[in-house]
Amino acid sequence: MENFELVILLLDATLRTSTPLILAALAGMFSERSGTINLALEGMMLGGAFAAAAVAYYAGSPWVGLLAAIAATIALSLLHGFACITHKGNQVVSGMAINILMSGFTALVGIALFAQGGKTPALDKASRFQPITLPGAEAVRDVPILGPIYFELLSGHNILVYIAFFAVPAAWWVMYRTRFGLRLRAVGENPGAVDTAGISVVLMRYRAVVCSGVLVGMSGAYLSTAQGASFLQDMTAGKGYIALAAMVFGKWRPFPALFACLLFGFLDAAATRLQGVILPGIGEVPVQLVQALPYVLTVILLAGFIGRATPPKALGRAYVKER
Amino acid sequence: MHQMHGTGETGAVQPAIELRGIDKRFGAVHANKEIDLKVDKGTIHGIVGENGAGKSTLMSILYGFYQADGGTIHVDGKLCDIKGSEDAIAAGIGMVHQHFMLVETFSVLENVILGVEGGAVLRDGVDKARVELERLEREYSLDIDPDAIVGDLSVGLQQRVEILKALYRGAEILILDEPTGVLTPQEADHLFRILATLKEQGKTVVLITHKLREIMAATDNVSVMRQGAMVADRKTAQTSPEELSELMVGRRVLLRLEKGEANPGATVLQVNDLCVDNAQGVRKVKNASFTVRAGEIVGIAGVSGNGQSELLEALGGIRSASEGSVLLNDQDVTPGKGVDAAELRKRGVAHVPEDRHRMAMVTGFTAKEAAILGYEDDPAYNNSILLDWHAISKATANMMLEFDVRPDDPDLKAANFSGGNQQKLVLAREIMRDPELLLVGQPTRGVDIGAIEFIHKRIVAMRDAGKAVLLVSVELDEIMSLADRILVMCDGVIIGEVSAAEANERVLGLMMAGVDPNEAKAVEGQA
User: Number of structural domains, chain A?
Assistant: First the structure.
């Protein structure tokens, strides 16, 4: 019974740690499926987290903070698009530039506004996304097995967790069942086909990076106004890259990317759980090793297992009409 | 006001397309010079010209891919301002591009509806599209499964998907840019049957090509372009290939190469059960066995992508053999086992690779740098440790003189030479070292007719000097006029051998499609 509870708690933590990864991985998918490499997820997530925490602090509402985060990440996406789509710049360089820029910029503005060493002030309850208790959760709480699953695992998360999990089928539907998705996938495979069909390649790619901005903005807001209670300098700690790795591991598809995110989230949750635990025969689990697990896995997966994933054909290439 | 000219018998029928004074420059290149063109409704109109004559540019302007600097476009007598592909589609113009504009991971149906989905949610339009697609396929006997993934289809079928795309958009005028370059003769024949059906249905077809045989066989009218200008309009029935080629080049050229009998001597190259895999581990050459003797040209024919490239690369030492052996003058030179391109060069193998820009030269180099690539450690080009630029310049100037490379400036960047002159420089580099064996791939790809003639003569001269030549080309005309023996490859297998005397396009075409040579000859016998 104790083990069962442990598993429930671990899975519960998995949902919470994988939420920002899922939103960011979907964001990456929209951008990359249209042919624009989005290495800037890390920096955009950081920018979104800062905007959300700062604005939520002043406005006293997490929703206003969320809107500010989305506005900020859309602006960053447009910047990335301006460099990569309009001016056909190197997409990796542009992405890295945004990451470096946001790492410094958020700290700079944070210090200027709040003078707390780059942090934003701690948010009160009303300025954060609060856990939602699903209907009937209290009632079934004591039912064996199903009770804890519903009460602990499914209920009691904040709205952004539910949005993230709902966003996966929604993204799938948009990608595979709508005109927008068809054109978006086409522009990432062969922009020439889209151009000759009388559709603007540039506009399509801009629309895709804006979608990407909306999603990554939510993931940033989650970090600072739902999971945490303030913005901390460089609080993303590589989550943007991990999300990107999950997207690649998921072969640029929503559901496989979801599972990759859950796997990374699980490792992250397990790392927290395993700290200080004494395992039989091994002794105390070294904290540093456990904390490194998600990153080690990222490297292993990217290096080996997904060698044969085929990216969108036009990924990373600006569209130039051939002479 | 411009007075329209009626056709006389039928009254004032408007031409389907009329271009007036179309002018286009790309920087210093004057690609289209004041072009006038009239294409009658319900006809197949050919446009011929050498590579770089401006045909594709003209059609790209008509399809809205480029904007003309001057001139007007009239469709069905109405002035049309075509700013982009969407305007061309709206005016009823469809285009089948030389490089297909298809999304390979999509199904046929998805490719066809891209841009005309018929609603924000796909389901609304897809069912209607499927019905319409099936009707079009029946009407024009296109014979394609709408749910097939385009990347899995053969090139010929992919081309039909392009045609289907245009028809689905309601095209009345269909432009085809070099449509047969990638097809087997049988696929090409099928294409021409489709075009004939289109014409019967009242559609107008514009066919861009540099193959005169196709113009003569398929078109009603033909316009000839040369160096960006429209030089002639003819009724196809009233012209001849000789006249057209003269108009294209501006002077008379030999269409058939005149060469004497081959005089084969000892075996130079012997290939035994050679297998070659590509980088993905797919076997591209399967158990190839053949010989090339001194004083003969052996041609390898086949549709592009059937293993010829890998075979040539292996023999040139830049790709390893997986199985089998290669003997050069009875010495083992199987590629991969200590034998690389440099070693082969030392032993007298010259290699002119298929892809000039990727493998034969560095376009950013000057001509003299390009002229020593692969031989840069030759003592003749070196002082003690530095390159001897004086000697290199002299050697390059000599190559340029011998191979008529123009302009004859060893310091000019390789990229600034025309395709034909680049190729002549590469050939000079390889041939002037007097090799035992010349491996040559697509020697005249992207080369103008004048240079083709020169290059062919030099290859035959190699043979007459008692050297062995292995020629890989996807141009059947080239293979048939140069080779003494022809091997046909299909799907990595050498299907069979035909002597130059008994070769014709039908037999070779059937073999290229994988038909056994004896069967192919039997089919030919019945025809």
Answer: 1
CB B405 within 8 A of CB B424: yes
User: What pLDDT digit, counting tens, does each position of B370-418 carry?
Assistant: 999 988 888 899 988 899 999 999 999 999 999 988 888 899 888 888 8
Looking at the fold, whether B222 and B345 belong to one and the same domain comes out as no
Instruction: Let me know if residue B89 belongs to a domain.
Output: yes
CB pair distance less than 8 Å for B115 and A178: no
What token pair was written down for B232?
């002639």
Reported as a single tens digit per residue, the pLDDT across A252-302 is 999 999 999 999 899 888 887 777 777 777 777 777 777 787 778 777 776
Residue A217 tokens read as 């903005």
Q: Is residue A323 part of a domain?
A: no
State the nearest Cα–Cα gap between A187 and chain B, in angstroms.
9
The span from the first CA to the last CA of chain A, in angstroms, equals 70
Give yes or no for B105 touching A (CB within 8 A): yes
The domain tally of chain B equals 2
Q: With an 8 Å Cβ cutoff, is A183 touching chain B?
A: yes
Which residue of chain B comes nearest to A193, CA vs CA? B101
A31-53 burial, b at 16+ Cβ within 10 Å, e below that, comes to bbbbbbbbbbbbbbbbbbbbbbb
Domain end residue (candidates: B215, B249, B283) = B249
Token pair listed for B427: 């050939």
Cα-based distances in Å from B267 to A170, B271, B299, B477: 68, 11, 16, 26
In a domain, residue B28? The reply is: yes
> Which domain does B221 fall in, by range?
17-249
- DSSP-derived letter for residue B514 is T
Which residue blocks in B292-333 are alpha helix, DSSP H?
308-315
A194 chain-B contacts, CB cut-off 8 A: 114-115
SS3 B163: helix
- Same domain for B218 and B285, yes or no, is no
| Cβ-contact B178, B208 below 8 angstroms | yes
ipTM: 0.88
- Name the burial class of residue B284, with classes exposed (0-12), middle (13-18) and buried (19+) by CB atoms within 10 angstroms of its CB: buried
